[in-house]
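Can't paste images in this forum, so I'm doing it all in text. The chain is below; anyone willing to post the predicted structure tokens underneath?
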Amino acid sequence: MTAAASARSILTQLHDVMASRMHAQGKLDRVVEIIGEALDSEVCSIYLLRDGMLELFATRGLNQGAVHVTRLAMGEGLSGTIADRIETLNLAEAKAHPDFLYRPETGEEKFNSFAGVPIVHRERAVGTLCVQHVDPRRYEDVEIEALQTTAMILSELIANAGLVDEEAVRGLTVEQTGPALLKGLALVKGVACGDAVFHQPRVTIDQIVADDTEAERQRVYRAFDRMREQIDKMTAQAEFGVGGELEEVLQTYRMFAYDEGWARRINSAIDSGLTAEAAIERVQQHTRMRMREIDDPLLADRMHDLEDLANRLLRIVSGQLGTAATQGLRRDTILIARNLGPAELLEYDRRRLKGVLLEEGSLTAHVVIVARAMGVPVLGRVQGLRGVVNDGDTILLDADSASATVRPAQPMAEDFAARMAASRKKQASYVELRDVEPFSRDGQRVQVMMNAGLRDDMPSLALTGADGIGLFRTEFQFLVSATLPQRDRQTRLYRDVLDTAGDKPVIFRTVDIGGDKAVPYLRPGAAELDENPAMGWRALRLALEREGLLKAQARALLEAAAGRPLNVMFPMVSEPWEFDAAKAVFEDQLQFLRSQKKVLPDQIRYGAMLEVPALAEVLDQLAPRLSFLSIGTNDLTQFLFAADRANPKLAERYDWLSISIMRFLHRIVQATIRYPVDLGVCGEMGGRRLEALALLGLGIRRLSISPASVGPIKELVRKVDLTEIGDLMTGFINSPPDNLRQALQAWADEREIETD
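Text version of the structure:
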């Protein structure tokens, strides 16, 4: 018998059991017998959530005396782990698993192999379905799929029969009343206020077992055609980013929509006897399992795109098309979702969409790139989001502080509204500074530049009046592309950036990928996999080893800058020879273009980013070769303190205004002062007003910051006497106060200089 025929046989038997007039307990008892026989497994057991505990409700193979006696807490034992994490386990040796827990009343000591799947209702585990076998073996994929299918059928029986906690059936995890503070990861910064709207209501699958397999297949084919038409239309009508990275995101998304392998997997599930809806759901569950096993953040984000498409396909095939986007937003909205695909976000009315809260999400996700272009703040990795928020709840989103308040008390809401009003008024005042040059009170000119990485960031240059682009992150083009960007595509991007900038300078940082910025088309070897990616095989180290990558980028930059100045900056330089090697790649390509009679840049200025502390010790050797040096405060800080900035426990532990950092930066300023090197700072530190005060006091005269920070920092510069703040910081360096931040704040307050 084929795998599909075997699966159909199981489904037919389960269908008959569910349709019978047998009581619920009798149905569960019969289910464990059917599955145990079908999988040739000595044990099959069902645990259900009762009174907050997983209770053994039915078993074939374990002691019957343990039924309704054995109870496990969520996260306790293998069944508790499955329910707590909503994941599948497939173990040849169950006792070797760290979460294994032996309960003597079950008599399970003789069984070695174990496989279990969660029984999920409304995205919450309400139980587990497990099988065990004496002989050590892993269960086959077809057997795991049979368990998942059975769990899908059981979820509706269990919910309708009242066998589990009412809260679990309703999908609630906590009492959803009163104010609640949510913490997460700031994916796109900003503040917003609005009412909670759930992006996607759960699609109800009314029928799991198919009456006519061929009819179900045709339903899926029609749904695929309609979904692809929608994606093609969305891609063609994108309102911004045409020809840029956003378009590449959508093209990658479109590639998934046309993936034949995905369609074949759904077809295979239909062959086993499932309806179209159930087949899509089963393949989607398998995708979620794979996502939990993926360590590569970029690949995991691509899997999220695939899940987004599966949700879209499920809504089409079921006819349950009512999403928040299609229904239209009627009020200022904070969108709630587990995750979002880029195309789904584009469907929303940007006049009403004020912010997004995600249970998942990461900084490299496609949807983050789209949200940034839309100017929508996004908070991700919000644990327990769906268990706390009700539809229509007021939410105060403060992605700047990586938090959101649900159902705020009236005084808190009023305070937040006042803050937002003041912020809007303040932003309006910054617009007036757009064409004003940032001279200090004592007449010194400070360069206030902005960071960018996408073509869509460039309009901010004119809107903010920044002096130029102090850091253009060229790796963004690599991160959002499904394949290595070809040289001509890179050239077009760099030329467009220079055209938009006009007479203002642009500093292009060569590609900084690898490590935690993984791309699927540049795979390191087994010996090169990094346990500490921030300090590993990345940035210039990768580019020098993969010389073809740097050669292509060098040629693209040189050709794009034909007839105008070019500023090139190399990231993560640790020693002078790395800078020399990278510069040599550019000089070789320059010589080649010269031999081809190509138009060359008018001038080439080479610089380095100082992120690795070791470079500070050899500036006397390197500085004479540099046109400019940019201090990358984000990476530099984590290297100085040996503190991973992505670790939430360490993110706020070390202060940028600590005396150790101030002295380190002061030493860099003093080491370069006798050389004609343009010294600046790139990173978030320069965009925070109190920290910017300290940097100005140390002698930094070029800051490259986020576009939103340009206005506030220009205003700050005009209020400060740089000679006075320089004397103050010199005193602090030589004789540190107990708390430098407090001392600097007190100085600013005395002079009525507003800080953050």
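The radius of gyration is 30 Å. The longest strand covers residues 124-133.
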